[in-house]
Write a structure and sequence with these properties.
The chain has 180 residues and is of the alpha/beta class. The chain contains four helices and nine strands. The protein has a single domain, classed as Rossmann fold (3-Layer(aba) Sandwich), CATH 3.40.50.2020. It has a six-stranded mixed β-sheet with strand order 4-3-2-5-6-7. The chain has a three-stranded antiparallel β-sheet with strand order 1-9-8. The chain binds inosinic acid (IMP) and magnesium ion.
Length: 180
């Protein structure tokens, strides 16, 4: 851990405290509604696991896995669906749970897609936001923390599929991605 992490930006305690607050907010906002919590694999898994334990409502859960189409189509922001939802979203209230919003392209595309499929309302909950990097507008309804424009890992976020299991959010040492 010490060999790859430059600085711990957000500790596990701070993350858990913030997730409790988000869970309370979501519980209040969705009283009496049928809420489907949709996790974006794999980055959102650890955040979502902790979040749903703090939502005191009869929710259901579903998952989607997406990847952006290479550099050539980055401006269109189109994403490829690797694994689609198991259930129909028609008429449902959806909460998309993501690890981090960077350019905004992934969530911009996904929320429009789910609205087109007839969802009643689509809201976004993200653990982290890097607002400096945004290229398309995304309305973030629930936010854990803002982070500076640095590559961060841990609490579900990876570099080359590694470090998702770190219990905190930390910035990656430059030499980790320079040596690759
Ligand atoms: P975007 O908002 O469409 O640009 O992409 C967001 C996705 O990029 C996230 O779901 C992450 O998978 C990935 N990502 C962006 N910044 C970071 C980072 O600092 N660490 C790890 N993954 C990141
Ligand atoms: Mg991701």
């Amino acid at each position: 851990m010490d060999d790859v992490i430059k600085e711990v930006l957000i500790s596990e305690d701070e993350i858990h405290k913030r997730i409790k607050e988000l869970g309370n907010e979501i519980t209040n906002d969705y009283k009496g509604k049928d809420l489907v919590v949709i996790g974006i694999l794999k980055g959102a898994v650890i955040f979502m696991s902790e979040l749903v334990k703090n939502i005191d409502l009869p929710i259901t859960m579903d998952f989607m896995s997406v990847s952006s189409y290479g550099k050539s189509s980055i401006s269109t922001g189109e994403v490829r669906i690797i694994k689609d939802l198991d259930f129909s979203v028609e008429g449902k209230d959806l909460l998309i749970v993501e690890d981090i919003i960077d350019t905004g392209l992934t969530l911009n595309y996904l929320s429009e897609l789910l609205e087109k499929r007839g969802a009643n309302r689509v809201r976004i909950c993200t653990l982290l936001d890097k607002p400096e990097r945004r290229t398309v507008g995304v309305r973030v309804d629930y936010l854990g923390f803002e982070v500076p424009d640095e590559f961060v890992v841990g609490y579900g976020l990876d570099y080359a599929e590694l470090y998702r299991n770190f219990p905190f959010i930390g910035s990656l040492k430059e030499e980790v991605y320079m040596n690759k």
